[in-house]
Write a structure and sequence with these properties.
138 residues, alpha/beta, Rossmann fold, five-stranded parallel beta sheet, 5 strands
Length: 138
């Protein structure tokens, strides 16, 4: 089973950025844990701070992979383009957020991804990715 984990802007700063919200672990370190926990999955990881690059990656894997775990970061709340891309591809997308976006600023309550996502998981820290991967296990 091929799964692509895609992270958007500023998620390359996990472990450094606002540790009270996002924790102190880098995503690269957590990815090692995920690969150990899900050895039957072929996990690919991609991160970009650029909206168009995220759309390109979604289109690249959106017809050939078994699943996508997407944390679009702030683009969740602003990108009609990413939302439209998810609607256009065949691969199911699980929207993930480390924090509970509904307990934060009001602008974070809107998602352009959720209406086209297979599911949404938020507020469980990095474990949100673990829960998303579990959703693909048959």
């Amino acid at each position: 089973m091929k799964i692509c984990i895609i992270n958007g802007p500023n998620l390359n700063l996990l472990g450094k950025r606002e540790p009270e919200i996002y924790g102190r672990q880098t995503f690269e370190d957590y990815l090692v844990v995920l690969k150990q926990k899900f050895p039957a999955m072929q996990l690919e990881y991609y991160q970009s701070n650029v909206e168009g690059e995220l759309i390109n990656k979604l289109q690249e894997v959106g017809f050939s992979y078994d699943g996508i775990v997407l944390n679009a970061g702030a683009y969740t709340h602003t990108s009609v383009g990413i939302g439209d891309c998810i609607k256009a591809i065949a691969t199911p997308v699980i929207e993930v957020h480390i924090s509970n976006t509904f307990s934060r600023e009001a602008f974070r309550h809107q998602s352009y991804i959720s209406p086209n996502a297979h599911g949404v998981i938020l507020g469980f820290g990095l474990q949100s990715y673990d829960l998303a991967l579990q959703s693909f296990v048959k």
